[in-house]
Design brief:
The protein is an alpha+beta fold. The chain is built from six helices and seven strands; from the N terminus they run E-H-H-H-H-H-E-E-E-E-E-E-H. Helix 3 crosses helix 5. The radius of gyration is 23 Å and the shape is flat.
Length: 229
């Protein structure tokens, strides 16, 4: 089932400003925080040095610039989340899709490489691999897509046949070609499958519940024809 959503609902599901979960995602680990902090410190030092050469009238502007750069360690995740959200919000149309899990399996993927030197002084390339969960989800209208996310302990209960829901985005009013999809909600398990948390999840569940109620009260909405991604 695919139900088109109003633009206002779409913008509530994926806000322009970072949610708490999105901020936490881009806050990252200690190394990522230290990189942002280093950028802030270097930025403040540069602004301080420049203040010695700028005319007095321009120093208030330089102070504001130094303040913004000095707080980059704090607002950097907000900017990163806003940029990621815009990648979704730029699509003109959206819909709530409901289908099921067709297949589920685990794979080991290469996520990066590191160069190091062994005891003999030889350069060695070390591959960093990560176990990932792969979901193939689709519906009776021949729409099929694949989702791959880092494997977590709570994923072990996922089985083929589980009900899957997500937000789909398109630049076509009839949603005949899906350009992007959001996190996947497995309502039978009350479990979210995603890497980046695109959606306001509490609101998504409310929208899904209301659509289910309206479908039971009245005739089904026409289903636009979709194509395989």
């Amino acid at each position: 089932m695919l139900v088109p959503l109003k633009r206002e609902t779409f913008h509530e599901l994926i806000p322009a400003v970072a949610t708490g979960a999105q901020y936490a995602y881009f806050w990252g680990n200690l190394n990522q925080f230290l990189k942002r902090l280093l950028f802030s410190v270097v930025g403040i030092l540069i602004c301080t040095l420049m203040a010695n050469f700028w005319i007095e009238e321009w120093k208030p502007f330089l102070f504001l610039l130094g303040l913004v750069v000095g707080l980059y360690w704090l607002w950097g995740p907000v900017a990163s989340a806003a940029r990621r959200n815009y990648e979704c919000r730029r699509y003109k149309y959206s819909g709530l899709w409901q289908g099921e899990v067709f297949d589920v399996f685990v794979s080991e993927e290469l996520v990066g490489t590191e160069e190091t030197v062994n005891s003999k002084g030889d350069l060695v390339i070390v591959e960093n691999r990560e176990r990932r969960l792969n979901l193939e989800i689709g519906d009776e209208n021949d729409f099929v897509t694949a989702i791959q996310v880092p494997l977590k302990r709570q994923h072990k209960g996922i089985r083929p046949g589980s009900r899957a829901e997500m937000l789909v985005m398109s630049n076509r009013a009839d949603l005949s070609r899906i350009a992007k999809v959001s996190d996947v909600y497995l309502s039978d398990l009350d479990l979210w499958v995603s890497d980046y948390p695109y959606l306001r999840r509490d609101f998504f569940v409310e929208v899904s519940t209301e659509i289910d109620r309206s479908q039971r009260r009245g005739p089904s909405e026409p289903r636009p024809r979709r194509v395989r991604r």
